[in-house]
Amino acid sequence: KPILEIKNLEKVYNETTHALQGMNVSFHEGEFVVIIGPSGAGKSTFIRCINRMIDPSQGEIVFDGIHMEKMRGKSLRKQRSMIGMIFQHYNLIGRTNVIKNVLHGRLGHMSLMNSLCGRFSKEDIQEAATLLKQVGLDEQMYKRADELSGGQMQRVGICRAIIQHPKLLLADEPIASLDPHSANKVMDTLYKMTCERGLTCIVNLHQVDFAKKYATRIIGIKAGRIVYDGTPNDLTDEM
Ligand code: ADP
Ligand code: ADP
């Protein structure tokens, strides 16, 4: 049974831009899927529809057996707490230290009172520290996030997503702002951290070489439609 099923998903912006034109696709446990396609193909729109940062115009989004396409309020927040997000620009709080940034991944699981006061449990703090060690940032734990390099910031972003204990991880252009060395390190980290946990990961990339290096499955999107869905090996050059 798939962890995520997308049926006939469409997104129209401003009644004119057909960003997604009937997407049908399913994702299974443990897959590391890379979505590739030129700028404007609809990759970002696709990711944002899945976690309902934007409303789809039509279609179904079934995550963990539950329809999310029309969900709102508390039930949407609960579903979202099971979806980890990784962003191109990291979305860390710069003036806050690294370990607290990681702990923010727990907020969706905490009582309102504890989350407002930033009262994290001992277990959460221990886990945050362990994750930071695993991604090679034990020495940066108490630095302000804005003192880190881009590659380091994204590794913090990965820890923040993992500590959520999500069933699905979505990454929208996680390495687009990084040099090749840091990009490799971030992709290695993302791959390792998700594989170890058997997590399903969907990553938007525009670099085909990185897609081929890491993906267990590649989905090619052009003009809001899926034009390729298969193994990295069968991908032809024109994608
Ligand atoms: P990609 O991530 O592959 O670069 P996007 O999903 O960002 O593609 O964009 C798909 C299409 O939707 C493009 O034509 C883009 O200009 C348009 N688009 C994206 N976001 C918006 C928005 N908020 N309002 C209007 N049009 C948008
Ligand atoms: P990256 O993933 O970006 O390559 P590394 O962990 O390999 O990060 O860091 C390489 C070294 O460069 C580290 O010692 C790091 O502290 C340092 N470094 C790089 N950029 C910065 C920066 N903007 N501020 C502080 N240190 C930096």
TrEMBL record:
Residue ranges of every copy of the ABC transporter domain listed in the record: 4-239
Keyword Repressor recorded: no
The keyword ATP-binding is assigned to this record: yes
GO terms for cellular component: membrane
Keywords per UniProt: ATP-binding, Cell membrane, Membrane, Nucleotide-binding, Phosphonate transport, Translocase, Transport
InterPro entries the record matches: AAA+_ATPase, ABC_transporter-like_ATP-bd, ABC_transporter-like_CS, ABC_transpr_PhnC, MetN_ABC_transporter-like, P-loop_NTPase
GO terms assigned for molecular function: ABC-type phosphonate transporter activity; ATP binding; ATP hydrolysis activity
Matching SUPFAM superfamilies: P-loop containing nucleoside triphosphate hydrolases (SSF52540)
PANTHER family linked to this entry: AMINO ACID IMPORT ATP-BINDING PROTEIN, PHOSPHONATES IMPORT ATP-BINDING PROTEIN PHNC
Protein name per UniProt: Phosphonate ABC transporter
Organism of this sequence: Coprobacillus cateniformis
